[in-house]
Structures are given as C-alpha cells and as structure tokens.
Amino acid sequence: MTTIAVTTWSLEQTAPTDLLPAAAPEGDVRIVRSEVPSPEFSRFLYASVGGDIRWTDRLAWSYTRWLEHLQRPGVETWVAYDRGTPAGYVELEAQDDAVVEIVYFGLLPAFRGRRIGGHLLSYGTARAWDLADRWAGLTPTKRVWLHTCSKDGEHAMDNYQRRGFKLFDTKVEEEPEAPAPGPWPGAFPV
C-alpha cells in the first residue's frame, strides 16, 4: 500500500475581535442555517464539497449516525447559496470549555474561485462566536478553532489566515494514498 505524508495545521481565534471578515461577493449569494436535521442534505454537502479532496471519514456513516450527529445541541450547518443553488457549507460543533470547532468548511468545485469562500468562512466564524445565543445551556464561546491539511484546496490556509485565524499546531502523518471518491464515480472532469 502506498502512503503519502499529510500535513495538518490547527488554527484558532481566541476572541471575536480576531475575525477579519471578507467582503460579500457580488450577486445573489445568501447564507442560511439548515435548521431541520437532514442526513440526506448533509451527506450531499459533505460528498459534493469533499469528494475531490478526499473527505472520506463520513462516507460510511449510516442514516442514523448522521441524524444523531445533526441533532446534537450546538451542531449547526450554514449553507451558502448562489442564486438558489447550494454552493458550500460550514459545519459548527460546540465542544467542552466554551470551544466551537469549525468541523467542515468548503465549496462545491463549480463555486470555487468566486469569492464566496471568504464570505462563507467569515459568516460561519461569526456564527461560531455567537453559537450560545441560539442554544440554551451553552456557555458563550471563548475559542473557535479548525484544522486544514495539505489535501485541502490550495487557498484554504491563506483564507483561514486572512480571516484572522492563528496557527497553533502542525502535525505530519503518513496516510494510505486513496483516490478522491467524488460525490459519485466519474464526477470530476479529467
């Protein structure tokens, strides 16, 4: 089995004032919270955004596992729409000690390079900071963090840093090399 070295960078913000918002893109781009837990929709977003960058962790999740995850207090999915079409998403998850992780963030391939990502990340990060306002019993957020890796899009790290995230950890691990699964076989043009 062939392996590849994958670098994972962890970044954080420790105050809401760390956020450096991006300008909203031109056109009809809206960001809406997906308030009804929908395993089908969440799996669609996960597979469509991550299919070309080897997101595979959740592909084997059952419907029940998706539903249980989405129904957890403090888990939110915010979806960017370009003229009514899902363009990307950000998933937030409340953790212990008033920490919120941006667990997943990205755009479908057709929507990359159109300035939607910076806007979506800005909006999603702001929602991480005010997450407790929407969930009774959660402590106000004291830290927002995320990780990205060398398999992610070429502009991911730059986008995170431009939004005010600071690097706090770097790890390099060998992983089995696997083809990008795509949302379905043959989804990506050659």
Core attributes:
22% helix, GNAT family N-acetyltransferase, Acyl_CoA_acyltransferase, 190 residues
Description of the structure:
Strands 2-3-4-5-6-1-7 form a 7-stranded mixed β-sheet, sandwiched between helices. It contains 4 helices and 7 strands, in the order ββααβββαβαβ. The protein starts with a strand and ends in a 14-residue tail after the last strand. It is 22% helix and 33% strand. The chain is globular and about 45 Å long. Residues 29-190 form the N-acetyltransferase domain. It comes from Streptomyces olindensis.
Topology:
Blueprint: E1 3-13, E2 29-33, H1 39-50, H2 63-70, E3 75-82, E4 85-95, E5 99-107, H3 116-129, E6 143-149, H4 156-162, E7 166-176
Parallel strand pairs: 5-6
Antiparallel strand pairs: 1-6, 1-7, 2-3, 3-4, 4-5
Helix pairs in contact: 1-2
Protein name: GNAT family N-acetyltransferase
Pfam family, one: Acetyltransf_1
InterPro entries: Acyl_CoA_acyltransferase, GNAT_dom
